[in-house]
Amino acid sequence: MPPPRHPFRAGFRDCLPFVLIVIPFSTLFGVVARDAGLDLVQVMSMSVIVIAGASQFTALALLQDGAPVFVALLAALAVNLRMAMYSAALVPHLGAAPLGARALAAYLMVDQSFAVAVRRYEESPEMTVSQKLRYYFGCMAVVCPIWYGCTLAGALMGQAIPASLSLDFAVPVCFIALLAPLLRSLPHLIAAFVSALVTVAFAWLPWNLGLPIAAIAAMIAGAQAELFLARRARAKAGCPA
């Protein structure tokens, strides 16, 4: 696929479908956070600083269950470890960008924009670093402002939204839409399977502690699968290990 003529606009356009998920997802967080006892400043501070719905919901749920703060932070960190992997995946594409641009890209990184951007980079390897940055920020221009705005709307509306609307459907739908296209290799599938299996196996642990355990187990399983496949490929090629 040839590089887009207007990378920023192309990124904005390609991320537009996620608006249908981000709106209810972020609105739901605002509602749930207010229901959990956070004031408006606390809700918005959490959303602006973290910008990671899954870890925000995780920390909020644990705090509601009476878990110690360090446990909530540990679980949120475990959920957000995927961002470290996202960053590593972006290094070949954006590693040569100026420090300020990379810092802003790291702050604004969310699942949707990462998934869309990486896929576009792989389909258009001729894109320059400048084009990739503009495309990336075009993706962010869709997701992040809506995340902030709808979190604020949800926090202001609070319990005025009836439970019958069941906005919580947005959480699993969002992650299914993001995860499915990325499961393109055996290590990816193994990591996803191990994550699901360990999560279910340790569901009995208090404070959702099975979640960080599952995240660590999935990363180890995926990495070991990558190493195994690399060793097998070297063996077939007759190269030393």
Low-pLDDT runs of 5+ residues are: none
Q: How many β-strand stretches? A: 0
Q: How much is the radius of gyration in Å?
A: 19 Å
Average pLDDT: 83
Q: With helices defined by DSSP (H or I, 4 residues minimum), what is the helix count? A: 11
How far apart lie the N and C ends?
A: 36 Å
* Overall shape: globular
**Structural category:** mainly alpha
Task: Provide the β-strand percentage band.
Answer: under 5%
User: Mind summarizing the main beta sheet?
Assistant: none
Number of domains: 2
Q: In sequence order, what are the helices and strands, one letter per element?
A: HHHHHHHHHHH
Helix content: over 70%
Write a short abstract of this structure:
The protein has 241 residues and is mostly helical. The chain folds into two domains: 7-182, no CATH class; 183-241. The protein has eleven helices and no strands.
Top keywords for this entry?
mainly alpha; 11 helices; 2 domains; 241 residues
Describe this structure in words.
There is one protein chain. The protein has 2 domains: 7-182, no CATH class; 183-241. It is 75% helix and 0% strand. It has 11 helices and no strands. Helix 4 runs antiparallel to helix 5 (69-94) and helix 10 runs antiparallel to helix 11 (210-237). The longest helix has 29 residues, at 129-157. It is globular.
Task: Outline the fold blueprint.
Blueprint: H1 7-15, H2 19-35, H3 40-50, H4 53-64, H5 69-94, H6 99-108, H7 111-123, H8 129-157, H9 170-179, H10 186-201, H11 210-237
Helix pairs in contact: 1-8, 2-4, 2-8, 2-9, 3-8, 4-5, 5-7, 5-11, 7-8, 10-11
